[in-house]
Amino acid sequence: MRRELTDRVGRVMVLVLAGPFLFGVERRIEIIDYNFYIDKYPVTNEDFWRFVEETAFFPKGSPRYLYFKEAAATKPDHPVAGVSWYEAHAYASWAGKRLPTSREWEKAARGTDGRLYPWGNEFSEKKCNSLESGIGDTTPVHKYHGGVSPYGCYDMVGNVFEWVDDWATHPRFSPLPYSEKINRGGSYNRPKEHTTCVHVESDPPHLIMRDVGFRCAFSYRSPKEWEINYVL
User: What's the Cα-to-Cα distance from 232 to each of 1, 76, 110, 228, rounded to whole Å?
Assistant: First the structure.
């Protein structure tokens, strides 16, 4: 299998091999028994705007339509933010992919050795966009070359939180299990304690937040699906 590939909308994905890795704060051994691909970068404003335009997802001229149009024009290479889990899921389906699971996301972020940050165990404000950076806004997804994960993923911590596919078993705001979706990685307005590979939050899937975006994943199933969705 190729280490990198380009999906059908032109985004680079990186390969994460099957096998064990250390998961969670307690660093317990987990096994993902299949290979999968995950986006090298978070979905950008430019990416999401293409989806909006091609699908007419928002009514033309509506506040949401104008918001994403402006974001794509002014910050095309910044991660898209202010999207609900449902909108992230819709984009992923349109792109022929899906949202990663929380376990997939964490393995892609920290590798197999249980590191706290994608680059190691010591925090550095020069390797991610967190509260310590003092920027107070999103940054281009390719900015932090020193902060890439062992698999080559950028912005796995900081910049924006990222929705994943999983429901939270212990939601933050609701007494009901499986009523909120998990997001990972911290953001530009969170301290270093939250911008780690192990920090987990959850929010109602309809909620729209200024510092939450997403990236997509894909796992190989059949030669036919591979040929339809990907350029080799």
Answer: 10, 26, 27, 11
Query: In 3D, which of 217, 49, 215, 211 has the Cα closest to residue 129?
Result: 211
Q: Which two tokens stand for residue 24?
A: 């969670």
Both ends of the chain: CA-CA distance in Å?
10
Main-chain phi, psi angles of 211, to 5 degrees:
-125, 30
Q: How many CB atoms lie within 10 A of CB 4?
A: 12
Give yes or no for a contact between 16 and 36, defined as CB atoms under 8 angstroms apart: yes
Q: What is the CB-side half-sphere exposure of residue 225 using CA atoms within 13 A?
A: 8
Distance CA 154, CA 132 (A): 18
At 198, list the tokens. 């192990």
Convert the pLDDT of each residue in 111-170 to its tens digit.
Answer: 999 999 999 999 999 999 999 999 999 999 999 999 999 999 999 999 999 999 999 999
Distance in angstroms (rounded) separating the CA atoms of residues 33 and 35: 7
pTM of the model: 0.93
Tell me the one-letter amino acid at 38. I
Q: Position 31: which residue type?
A: I
Rounded to whole angstroms, the Cα distance separating 178 from 92 reads 21
Contact 183, 203 (CB under 8 A): yes
Strands 36-39 and 12-16 come out as antiparallel
